[in-house]
Amino acid sequence: MTNPFVPSAPSRDPVAGAALRVEIYDPPMCCSSGLCGPVLDPVLVAMNDAVLALTKQGVAVTRFNPVQQLKEVMANEEVAKAIHQNGKKVLPMVFANGQLLKSGSYPSYEELCEGLGLKPLAKVRPLTVLAMPANNADPKVKE
Length: 143
Prior knowledge:
With 143 residues, this protein is of the alpha+beta class.
């Protein structure tokens, strides 16, 4: 039996043969995933589920938070230019294999798969809920 939290071998672009990758330039958040505090934002839960599923499929996913990684965020010329021209409202910016997939909001898992040329995994239930401790008393997160 495979561990769902251990990534498989990197997926390859069927055309170029290169490893598939996603870069997520998040808006400023207090932590790397935004999944902290007493109430979880369903949009961030869905994005975390997408990241877990893509990782399970062997996609290399890297997230950048300007609060903690400003230098890395500004090192991406396209992101830096968009922020300088339009402010932080352009975030999140999500890239699939170096190409901008979506800006201003997070893409769905299906949109990410489409941008990478992958078939989405069958949905059973959110991965984030499965990974959370059973004693989580937050009424907004239910199985």
